[in-house]
Write a structure and sequence with these properties.
Layout lengths: L16 H7 L1 H16 L6 H26 L7 H17 L2 E3 L4 E3 L3 H24 L5 H18 L22 H4 L1 E2 L2 E2 H19 L1 H11 L1 H6 L4 H27 L10 H11 L11 H20 L4 H38 L1
Helix pairs in contact: 2-13, 3-8, 3-11, 3-12, 3-13, 4-5, 4-6, 4-11, 5-6, 5-11, 8-9, 9-11, 12-13, 12-14
Length: 355
Amino acid sequence: MTLAPAAAPAARQEVSPALVLLKARTFIALIAVVAFFSFAAPNFLSTANLVIMAEHVALNAFLAIGMTFVIVTGGIDLSVGSIVGLCGMVAGWLVLNGVEIGFLGQTVFFNTAEIVGITLLVGVLVGVVNGLLITRLNVAPFIATLGTLYVARGLALLSSDGATFPNLRGSAEWGTQTFPLIGAGTVLGVPVSIVTLVVVGLGAAYLAARTPLGRHIYAVGGNERAAALSGIRVNRTKMFVYMFSGFCAAIVGLIVASQLVASHPATGETFELNAIAAAVLGGTSMSGGRGRIGGTIIGAFVIGILSDGLVMMGVSSFWQTVIKGLVIIAAVVVDQFQQRLQQRIALQRQAALGR
């Protein structure tokens, strides 16, 4: 009896410790900043401070979630900060002044729910403009959203001649007395902004991981031409991500105006930088095709805790800006290193299988 030689065992896929650490870098960074500020900043872990930090993180997380989808498609949205300011001014205008209908000689006032709906629609419409510029006129995302950044900020300034809309406490007569609850209210003791973030975050994560649209978003970022040849409607997918980014920015505009009980046209300046930093730090690749909502939210916590911790330590706001810039640069460099390491490991496995 002749025995046939045993089949060669399948090549084992060795796990690279360096790659594991790189993939977990956001969580490691979160633990590091929490540990550092726990010792360096007094009362950092107090309940009151943790609640305040969570509310601050929520604002950046909303923008970062929308930014993640945009960056995954290979784009960028520089207009989100200006959309925050514009939407805050729209909400303030509606609460204080309503909408005057000239030919009827009357002023229409809206209740809180209607103001929220109109404000969110404004954010989505700015996203539509971004999407049309990029998909129909083939304007580069950086230039298109840079243009709308200035347009939206200019409209916010024009709405009040650069002044603040104060005392947005609303009126029981018009049903707007609940407007301050958007930013200051609680649900079972949890701030409304945090509850809203949980809802939006879970919805975005489900969309990204479990729906055809989510798969299309990643496919467009991975290889736009291949996605188009496979039947994916690339332009519609891009339109969605910019509309969703505008929607998230409008939420932030509403929350900030409600928390301050006032709206100012300069609100949201440099917010886009924090959003990009959180997304990139959370593992979203600037080259597109890769990113996770969970990682982005952890990245937002890192940026938020870093900002608040530096304030508690008395660090100058100028140095805070420098540090955030360095964080963005470091995150991109680490991401590039991770991609090269993954490619090298993939080539090594192919060579091992070919032997």
